[in-house]
Amino acid sequence: MRRTSVGRRTKNRQAMRAVGAYVLVLILAAPAAVFANAPERSPRPKPRMVAIAVATRQPPVNVYYRSSIRPRPRGVATYSAPIVRLPEHPALASTVPVYSSPRPGPRPRGLVRVARLPKPQATGSAAWTSSDPVAVARMGTICNDPRIKGEKLARIYGGRTGCGIEKPVRVWAVDGIELSQKAILNCDTARTLAGWVRQSLKPAIRNRGGGVRSLSVPSHYACRTRNSRPGAKLSEHAQGHAIDISAINLADGSRITILDGWKDRRDKRVLQRLHAAACGPFGTVLGPDSDSHHRDHFHFDTARYRSGPYCR
Q1: Per-residue pLDDT tens over the stretch 38-57
Q2: Which of 50, 131, 149, 219 has the fewest CB atoms lying closer than 10 Å?
Q3: For residue 3, what is the enclosing H or E element?
Q4: Confidence class of residue 129 from pLDDT cuts 50, 70 and 90?
Q5: 3 state DSSP class of 120
Q6: Helix (H), strand (E) at residue 244
Q7: Positive or negative CA dihedral for 293, 229, 243, 302?
Q8: Are 239 and 163 in contact (CB under 8 A)?
């Protein structure tokens, strides 16, 4: 019994060894058989099949055009615009069409903007206004009065107590009449002078010698006493209230001086008329009959007195 079991065990072991050897041979031989027919590299995948839509071919269509309607290079005018002339002023007419707005040119000469005059301000017993707004608009605007041509100045402080002008202006023309020198005044005096020129001087001279061209002004603002006398009161010149006129210059070059004209019969009538017309609008009017200091000029100032204007 023992021999039989030992023999079986031996056979089983041999069988198992044989099977193991066979399996080992298969394992070792399998790679060679598997990779015997393998390619050198993996093939690339084939493209995916997609549906391809075939559009229906449209028949050709002939297109006709005119070369004249094709766009042209920028800057070449393709039309001729009519010339438009404004009725207000021929100089503002447009003659050449443009593709972009041009820069504005200089203002044409002679084109005058009509300015509204301010309400008249009474000075003394009379109030003067202007009746020719187009003419006075050319004079500029100073002291809110287009009749006065000049410029504003900074406040003037005098060298002594009482001298100076809070709001001074330098005037070189009034109502179109030039002054021989630029006069420094306050606005009240400048407006009163402009009214006297318009309402009295021009009508009195009229067309004599071609009309009034300018006024000779020997004195305006000055920080001094009356007649420059030591110890006297301050003159109205010291506050910009006064202006002196020594002659009327005409367009033909002739002159009417206060010094000589007051002695001439014809000129004296004119000068007396101008002297009387200034009395009222101006608070003080002095001429050759007042004293020796005024024998060669008129003194006008806008001082106010309780008893009324002082005129001599």
Answers
A1: 677 777 888 777 655 555 66
A2: 50
A3: helix 2-34
A4: very low
A5: coil
A6: strand 242-245
A7: negative
A8: yes
- CA–CA dist 226, 229 (Å, integer): 6
Closest residue by Cα to residue 206 from 274, 149, 131: 274
Which tokens in the block code for residue 307? 């008893």
Residue type, 312: R
Q: What is the mean pLDDT of residues 103-120?
A: 58
Quick one: pLDDT at residue 9? 79
Answer whether 277's CB lies under 8 Å from 193's CB: no
214: exposed, middle or buried (C-beta count within 10 Å: 0-12, 13-18, 19+)? middle
Q: What are phi and psi of 182, to 5 degrees?
A: -70, 120
d(CA 166, CA 155): 5
* Tokens of residue 261, six digits: 């004209």
Q: How many CB atoms lie within 10 A of CB 216?
A: 18
Predicted TM-score of the model (pTM): 0.56
pLDDT of residue 231: 83
Residue 194 to residue 246: CA distance in whole angstroms: 17
At how many degrees (to 10) do helices 187-196 and 265-278 cross? Answer: 140
Taking CA atoms, 46 is separated from 38, 43, 90, 127, 158, in Å, by: 19, 9, 86, 112, 110
Strand order in the sheet with 284-286: 242-245, 298-301, 284-286, 310-311
